[in-house]
Write a structure and sequence with these properties.
Layout lengths: L1 E5 L6 H10 L3 E6 L13 E4 L5 H11 L3 E4 L9 H21 L4 E7 L24 H15 L4 E7 L1 E3 L10 H7 L9 E2 L1 E3 H10 L6 E5 L5 E2 H11 L21 H5 L15
Parallel strand pairs: 1-2, 1-4, 2-3, 4-5, 5-6, 6-10, 7-9
Antiparallel strand pairs: 8-11
Helix pairs in contact: 1-6, 2-3, 3-4
Length: 278
């Protein structure tokens, strides 16, 4: 298949590219800025596209006419929820409109697993998202709702609700921003439940989703955990001191189930964060 990958230079996109190429797909990688040459795969064909430029994006999709669009775009450079929500809202809207104009039939898109309504039981794909969330969480939820609504307009759509990413290139990596904050004693966390996901397993799910039925799929590891459990293990890997947990559990904190993803054949190589964060 010919696949247009939006967000190819991002942390997940960089892992998805070689998997797609290895499976024999033709990949057109779009990004705002081509990464350094030493990090590029020569088998990729790069197109410089700003998703906020509707006309340019539309032209590229019509010209390339891919079989599938994969949406792995985020804007997390400054850890700014508003910027990321804008990309999910406006960027996704433009990407979907361009795909529809090019008569593309299928899309696979990244969403998040921590947007569900509060509850004690593990959230499944049939549970609603937290549309009534209060600020500052509301900004994130509104972006997710907009993204998923737009993506659902496509004839075939798979929405991957990723857990909190860890592994190479993420904030939890040895050289990531969270690791740096932990080492200098500036790491603050809550007693909330976190549903982790290794970035490699996120990429694997993205490629497998090309053959999954339309709908939402939770992509998280097997062991949701509170910070009191995972933070000491993470700190030990970094040879750092685990900080105290200072902030009470948000009322939206909730475990998430991956039973459906496993029924589709997704078997994570990193089924638990207990195998190591870095």
């Amino acid at each position: 298949m010919k696949i247009l990958l939006a967000g190819a230079s991002g942390v997940v996109g960089r892992k998805v590219c070689p998997l797609l190429l290895g499976a024999g797909h033709e990949v057109v990688a779009i990004t705002r800025q081509v990464p350094p040459i030493e990090t590029r795969d020569s088998a990729l064909r790069w197109r410089i596209v700003d998703v906020y430029d509707r006309s340019n994006l539309m032209g590229v999709l019509v010209e390339e006419h891919p079989d599938v669009v994969i949406h792995q775009m985020t804007d997390l450079r400054d850890q700014n929820p508003a910027a990321n929500a804008r990309l999910r809202t406006l960027g996704t809207r433009n990407l979907v409109d361009a795909a529809l104009a090019a008569n593309v039939q299928s899309i696979v898109a990244q969403s998040i697993a921590w947007a569900y309504v509060p509850g004690a039981e593990a959230a499944t794909e049939t549970d609603p998202l937290d549309a009534d969330a209060l600020a500052p969480r509301r900004t994130t939820i509104e972006g997710v709702l907009a993204l998923e609504s737009a993506v659902s307009e496509m004839n075939h759509h798979v929405i991957l609700r990723f857990g909190t990413l860890y592994g190479p290139g993420t904030w939890y990596a040895n050289d990531g921003s969270f690791a740096q904050k932990l080492r200098v004693g500036d790491f603050k966390t809550t007693t909330a439940i976190t549903n982790f996901l290794h970035v490699e397993d996120a990429a694997i799910a993205t490629v497998q989703a090309l053959r999954w039925p339309s709908g939402v799929v939770n992509i998280v590891d097997d062991t949701p955990a509170r910070a009191a459990e995972w933070l000491p293990a993470y700190a030990e890997e970094l040879s750092a001191k685990a900080p105290p947990i200072e902030i009470a559990t948000p009322d939206w904190s909730r475990p998430v189930s991956n039973v459906y993803a496993r029924s589709l054949g997704w078997n994570p190589k990193h089924p638990t964060w207990r195998f190591g964060f870095i």
